[in-house]
Each structure stands twice: as C-alpha cells, then as structure tokens.
Write a structure and sequence with these properties.
The protein is α/β, with parallel strands linked by helices. The protein has two domains: about 5-75 and about 170-245, D-Maltodextrin-Binding Protein, domain 2, CATH 3.40.190.10; about 80-170, 3-Layer(aba) Sandwich (D-Maltodextrin-Binding Protein, domain 2). It is built from nine helices and eleven strands. It has helices spanning about 15-25, 35-45, 105-115, 145-150, 160-170, 185-200, 200-210, 220-225, 230-245, and strands at about 5-10, 30-35, 50-55, 65-75, 80-85, 95, 120-125, 140-145, 155-160, 170-180, 225-230. The strands form two sheets. Strands 2-1-3-10-4-11 form a six-stranded mixed beta sheet. A five-stranded mixed beta sheet has the order 7-6-8-5-9. Helix 1 crosses helix 6. The longest helix has 16 residues, at about 185-200. The radius of gyration is 18 Å and the shape is globular.
Length: about 250
C-alpha cells in the first residue's frame, strides 16, 4: 500500500501538529512534508498530496472536499500573525501589497476593505522581500512568522482576525486539514490522536521553539493567538467567509 501523503505549512502556528506527526507512533504508512500555504494548496489541487493543512479559500476550488474534523489554524480575537502594516492610518493608504504566501489572507483582506472599512485601495501582488516597500501611502499584508517579527516595527498594525470579529462577531479559520477524497478511517483515527497529542504537549512545543524565535513570545502566540480546535462556531465562520468570497469584487 502506498504511503498516505500529508503536507503542512512550516510556520510556528503549525508546530503542535508537526510535533504530533513526528512523535505519535503511527501504524499506518504516512509521509509528511512542509511548504508555504500557496505551494501546498497547489499540491492538494494537483493531487500530489492526500491531505493538507491549507488556507480555507482552497475550498472554493475543489469540487469535493473532506475536513479532518476537530482541528484547524484559527483564532477568536487577535491572531498576531496575519496583519496589515502601514506607516499611515489605513484610510490614508492608496496601495496595499498582498502577501504572496496565502490566498485566504489575501481574500480576507479584500473582504475587510469592502465590507468592513468600505475602502477601495489598489491591491498589488508581491514577491519575496516586499516588506521593505511598506512605507508612506503603501500598506502591506504580512502573514506567518514574518508578521510576528514585524508587529513592533511599524506604527499601524491591523490584526485581521480582530477586524473580522468586529465585522461578524465570529472567530476565523485561516487553515484546515483538507482532503479532496474521503480520508481512510484508520488514517483519520491516527491523525486525530496524533494532532491531539501535539496540542496536549504544547508546553514541550513552546520549550523547543522559543529559542528559534527571538523577540517573539511563543507561549503567548500559541496559547492565546492561535485556537487549534475546529468547532461549530468556526465552521459557521468558514461558511460565511466562503459566502463573502462570492460577493466581493476580486
């Protein structure tokens, strides 16, 4: 039987899941890899992996999808790692640079501008190193570990999970474990145990990672910024996000 291929982002917010994948004693044959959200999304869409922790915007591109129940990268308030940064108040910014690494955060940014702030700036695609261009009337969306490192370096920071909650009174789901095909029962059972094992040992994850993230409060981020449990409220939020995707001007 061929190995069940799993892909995850390598950001700090995925470390409890990766800890579970590395340390749980699997009986099933699995292999896992890490990459950026955009690249993992393409792997899932192209059938190169069986299950992936991907931005929820990918759901709109799949004819059929299956969620690994119970787990996600979500937030119910400030997430800290998905933010708009600027030197000026957002209403004075004419251009917004969009992070090239995640489609969900890009779509969330556009939803918030149209439905929450009622602003219509020019959006610009980016490539590596674009953060240095966030200045003057140019704001920038930055996600992941780079956002955590940047949050004290610019005067205006708009946490997108916070702004989404102001708009909807709901939490937000940035990424979920998604498969294009039904997840085999034995794999689902073992992954559920593995991911719960990682979350249950989050203190060990924090101890392992703190030295790798200078200037970032890993404990605060993983225990207060990120909510790993996919519950009914987050599923409701996911559905609303997908509805908004159909309504906004991309």
């Amino acid at each position: 039987m061929s190995k069940y291929k799993i892909a995850s982002v390598s950001y700090l917010n995925s470390k409890p899941f990766l800890y579970g994948l590395k340390n749980y004693p699997f009986k099933s044959e699995i292999e896992f890899s890490v990459n950026t959200p955009a690249k993992i999304s393409n792997q899932l869409l192209n059938g190169e992996v069986d299950l992936a922790l991907v931005p929820v915007a990918v759901l709109s591109q799949l004819r059929e999808y299956h969620l690994l129940n119970g787990f996600c990268i979500g937030s119910n308030g400030p997430v800290q790692s998905v933010s708009l940064f600027s030197e000026l108040p957002i209403e004075k910014c004419k251009t917004v640079l969009l992070d090239y690494q995640s489609r969900t955060s890009v779509m969330l940014t556009k939803i918030l501008f149209q439905k929450h702030w009622k602003l219509f700036p020019q959006f610009a695609s980016t490539e590596e190193g674009y953060e240095q261009n966030i200045k003057g009337e140019t704001a920038g969306l930055v996600i992941g570990d780079r956002a955590l490192a940047l949050k004290h370096k610019l005067p205006f920071v708009y946490d997108l999970s916070t702004e989404w909650k102001k708009l909807t009174n709901l939490p937000f789901v940035f990424a979920a474990w998604i498969s294009a095909n039904k997840i085999p029962d034995e794999i689902e059972n073992e992954l559920t145990k593995a991911f719960q094992y990682g979350i249950n040992n989050i203190d060990k994850v924090i101890a392992e990672e703190q030295n790798n993230y200078s200037g970032i409060d890993v404990n605060d981020y993983l225990t207060n910024g990120i909510d790993f449990i996919l519950d009914d409220e987050k599923i409701k939020a996911m559905k609303l996000f997908l509805t908004y995707l159909k309504e906004i001007e991309i």
